[in-house]
């Protein structure tokens, strides 16, 4: 018998309101450890609100979020990162004047044990820690994401696709148990999208990291995900395997009124690309 999969993240009855607008209304779902799970839904459905609530930027009016069986109530975003939650943003959030390597190094700071005082005096333990950090970054992450040739380049000089890859590298440097990816392929051309899809699959396979992503590219969602959660007007309207969700009449209605969810791929891809390019 197949062992029961364990959930790494549980969203339980979460409600979030902005004034009179209920961005999330009693939202519940779980994310299995080791899975690629996607949250989809039309514009304004509540996807970003879910991400911001999970990562601690928003506090829900009610409900609870449990990570590795621990409630996150009252746990601030930096502590959530230290517990093993890393995220990328819809609009790239890197330091554009800094090099690729320095941006990636920032990701590891949430795990450094050396306090500010010993770092100031640069003790032997601080030096050892920095050396271990440097090696881990250089030998694993940079190599893995094929960004060795640009490690010294300022982020601002890179193509959009490479910047997104550096953002992924920085998130990986946080040694996460779960990676929250907010529209990882928005604004990318086909080749960049295929590269990112490959990296996401490899992050899960080689690093054992669970992935939770919000993405408008339906082709990518359906190809990569083990599990898909569909939001509409702040509520979960479907939750299941990609094929089940795609065939769900309520999902089809939410997106189109009628028709095929897959047909939306091009439409949403174009909209997401235009949005991301203008924001970069
Ligand atoms: N900071 C905010 N202040 C007020 N209302 C907000 C805020 N953030 C989101 N909302 C509202 O909450 C609802 C859900 O928005 P959210 O951004 O989570 O949706 P989304 O599914 O991520 O949309 P998109 O696909 O366009 O990014 C929308 O009605 C939105 O207008």
TrEMBL record:
First and last residue of the signal peptide: none
Superkingdom of the source species: Bacteria
Protein name (Swiss-Prot/TrEMBL): ABC transporter ATP-binding protein
Organism: Actimicrobium antarcticum
Listed Gene3D superfamilies: P-loop containing nucleotide triphosphate hydrolases (3.40.50.300)
Tagged with keyword tRNA processing: no
Domain called ABC transporter: residue spans: 9-258
Molecular function GO labels: ATP binding
Record's keyword terms, sorted: ATP-binding, Cell membrane, Membrane, Nucleotide-binding, Transport
